[in-house]
Design brief:
It is a single chain. Helices cover 58% and strands 0% of the residues. It is mainly alpha-helical. Helix 10 packs antiparallel against helix 11, helix 24 crosses helix 25 and helix 36 packs parallel to helix 38. The longest helix has 23 residues. The chain starts with 9 loop residues before the first helix and ends in a 22-residue tail after the last helix.
Length: 732
């Protein structure tokens, strides 16, 4: 390249400074990966450090992440760029931090002094990330340094990060609880059978032939043009099958291929069951039988085009692999370890034990998911390395390949089945539960629900310095119905200035069954309203007629409710973006004149519907429906019913928001409308949403569904026009 006039660092710049910000960067990225994979590229690049430093300091975060990826591909030593790499590993971008960590881990111990320096002199954000980076690099050896930093650190956010890191270290330092796996019998490869079994096997093989011949005659051969017409099984062929069942290797069994397999096997669960009912057959015979029937191949096959999931065998699709035939046979012999028992037969013949794991991970409806929780958890207990790989994939919304996304989802499904979570996974689950992508957070939280120490840790997080983590902890404790958290929440509420956290605390306290009456203060409400409105009305609500709000009075004093309070409730509900009214709103509404607050709720509802149907979509302002839900009465029901019948086809999000709003109305007409839609509606999603709303309403009121139905007796089951259709046979 130099000979033809190019710069000596051209290749380094091509790799590390690839133009990935162009409209279609795939070609540039591909060339960079090829260049980084060239032998001795790492040694060449070290002669041109300036190009690498320029890439690591690029203004665009995407370019910096690309440079970090290339350092990982070429297996570059991080030592020459340690300070820059630590900067990247403590940056704001989660993806950038993850990419930098992969490079730093190549020489973790050498990076520790640079990370310690960042933990001492960096910004508050950098110091917080450095605390976690320490345990990612050296694990339990970071404890002493972090404890010293905790004593010195003054910033609340950094102290919280260090405490979280120390909490993870405490988990990792806890001795792993040994899971007692059920003992399995040994697999005997040489397993002779009595000659009487040969006769039974010959009878079943003939049934296979008859099935295949029938399918062939039904023109099924057109579906399998490469398969010739089935031929009757010869006595010699039956002898070879019988021999393979007793002594055959995996390759020998698979090589014995009757031509009618593909015509008969997928339609022959009864014949397979008949074979399994032969009392002399043991596990090794059944494994060989699966190979003879071509349900599992002997050669490895990559299920994915990337090396992230190990190579494995492909489990052929067949009715006999479901829980109706094979699973009962295995469970009868090993009630709690049926999957491990089946796999022991595979491994006895040298077949990968990961066969079933890969099938379950890449197919959400695999029949093996029905083999029982204990069977699945015991099976994966022996394959934790596969789960390690799934954690390394990253969050599934960011995974490129669809099968890897599926596998990542199954990770949480599997971990939920573990009676005791392996300690190595708990810190990673906490990271996802508190800081992960929205789609994965609830999955990780459910895995941790029954983990020892989870609720105690959540109690501590109620007072975390990060409002987002506070809200997650509050909502999590509320879902767990942890009433012991009520005092903690009440104490936090008394000193909590952040409005979003206050709202979460109030909702949590109320749902856990405690009163929020002590937190109602009219003068303080007016002050909060005036403070909240100082920034003005949000531009998105510029269409709302705040100037013509109905007059509302306090029920006890008959004094008017300040316009600022009414306006603030609307603005606050918009900001919360949730049609579910907040506990504070609902409690204050109970103190207003009933007729007037219903008129106020009707005004809000009609204004929103008018904007949505006459001007432009108001779905982004659906939060103000919370005010209508808390205040509205019977008069809003016909309007909502008419909207649902008119716009069910092209305003689904708005229809769902209206249903959610109705859930908070105690009016009989609103309850009846929900029940009617839940029982019958032309759009399935709306009907299913109404069913969920009915269940939520019954749960909130402490009613059974039957008691909920009793409260609609005034309608007597009559339609809107006052009729009731009775169907009796051919007449109605």
């Amino acid at each position: 390249m130099v000979r033809f006039g190019d710069r000596a660092d051209t290749l380094a710049r091509l790799v590390f400074l690839a133009d990935i910000q162009q409209a279609d960067p795939r070609q540039a990225v591909l060339l960079a990966w090829i260049g980084a994979s060239v032998p001795e590229f790492s040694a060449y690049s070290l002669k041109h450090e300036s190009a690498i430093r320029e890439a690591l300091c690029h203004a665009a975060v995407e370019a910096r992440i690309h440079a970090l990826d290339m350092l990982a591909v070429c297996q570059m030593s991080p030592v020459p760029f340690a300070a820059l790499l630590v900067d990247r590993a403590t940056a704001n971008s989660k993806t950038e931090r993850a990419a930098a960590l992969m490079v730093l881990q190549r020489e973790a111990s050498a990076m520790v002094p640079f990370v310690q320096a960042k933990a001492q002199t960096g910004t508050a954000t950098e110091r917080a990330y450095a605390a976690r980076l320490m345990i990612d690099l050296i694990g339990i050896d970071a404890r002493l340094f972090l404890e010293e930093r905790l004593e010195i650190e003054q910033t609340a956010t950094v102290k919280d990060a260090i405490e979280q890191a120390l909490y993870y270290l405490a988990i990792l330092n806890t001795p792993e609880v040994e899971i007692g796996l059920s003992p399995l019998p040994g697999v005997v490869l040489e397993a002779p059978l009595p000659t009487s079994v040969r006769e039974e096997i010959e009878g079943v093989i003939n049934q296979f032939y008859e099935l295949a011949q029938g399918k062939y005659e039904e023109q099924q051969c057109h579906l399998y043009p490469s398969i010739p017409q089935p031929q009757p099984p010869s006595s010699d062929f039956v002898d070879r099958v019988f021999e393979c069942l007793q002594f055959g290797t995996a390759a020998e069994c698979f090589a014995l291929q009757p031509v009618y397999h593909y015509l008969a096997n997928l339609h022959a669960p009864a014949q397979f069951r008949q074979l399994l009912e032969i009392p002399e057959l043991d596990l090794i015979h059944v494994t060989r039988l699966l190979l003879l029937l071509q349900l599992i191949p002997t050669q490895s096959q990559t299920l994915v085009p990337t090396p992230t999931i190990p190579q494995c065998l492909h489990w052929a699709e067949s009715e006999i692999s479901t829980s109706t035939v094979l699973q009962p046979w295995c469970q009868h012999r090993q009630p709690n370890s049926s999957l491990r028992y089946l796999v022991s037969g595979f491994e006895g013949l040298g077949i990968s034990g990961d066969t079933i794991a890969m099938k379950m991970l890449t197919w959400e409806e695999s029949p093996f998911w029905s083999w029982g929780e204990q069977a699945i958890s015991e099976y994966f207990t022996e394959r934790l390395s596969i789960l390690d790989i799934l954690f390394d994939l990253g969050p599934f919304p960011q995974i490129y390949y669809a099968h890897e996304q599926t596998a990542r989802r199954q990770l949480f499904r599997i971990l939920e089945l573990f009676p005791q979570l392996p300690a190595r996974f708990i810190p990673q689950l906490w990271d996802i539960a508190l800081n992960g992508v929205q789609a994965e957070m609830p999955l990780a939280q459910r895995c941790l629900d029954c983990c020892p120490g989870t609720q105690e840790r959540l109690h501590q997080l109620v007072n975390h310095s990060d409002p987002a983590i506070q809200i997650i902890a509050i909502q999590w404790l509320t879902r767990l119905l942890d009433r012991t958290a009520i005092p903690q929440m009440q104490a936090a509420l008394r000193r909590q200035p952040t409005q979003t956290v206050r709202d979460a605390l109030l909702r949590g306290i109320e749902k856990l069954g405690a009163s929020i009456g002590e937190f109602l203060d009219r003068s303080q409400l007016l002050q909060e309203s005036q403070t909240g409105l100082r920034k003005g009305i949000p531009q998105a609500l510029s269409w709302f007629p705040f100037g013509t709000l109905p007059l509302v009075h306090w029920q006890d004093t008959e004094e008017p409710v300040a316009t600022e309070i009414l306006t603030w409730f609307i603005v606050q509900s918009y900001q919360q973006k949730n049609p579910e009214p907040s506990p504070v709103l609902r409690q204050y509404v109970k103190l207003w004149n009933v007729e007037e607050h219903q008129q106020f709720g009707q005004f809000v509802l009609e204004s929103w519907i008018n904007q949505d149907t006459q001007v432009a979509s108001a779905v982004k302002e659906k939060g103000i429906l919370a005010v209508a839900g808390a205040c509205g009465g019977e008069a809003m029901v016909p309007i909502i019913n008419r909207y649902l019948k008119t716009y069910f086809g092209n305003r689904l999000a708005q229809c769902l928001a209206l249903l959610q709003m109705l859930t908070w109305s105690d009016d009989f007409a609103a309850i009846q409308l929900l029940l009617t839609i839940a029982n019958r509606f032309r759009t399935q999603k709306i009907q299913e949403a109404a069913q969920q709303c009915v269940q939520q309403l019954a749960q909130r009121q402490g009613w059974t569904l039957a008691e909920l139905g009793d409260r609609t007796i005034p309608w007597c089951g009559l339609a809107e026009d006052g009729t009731l259709l009775l169907d009796y046979g051919s007449h109605n």
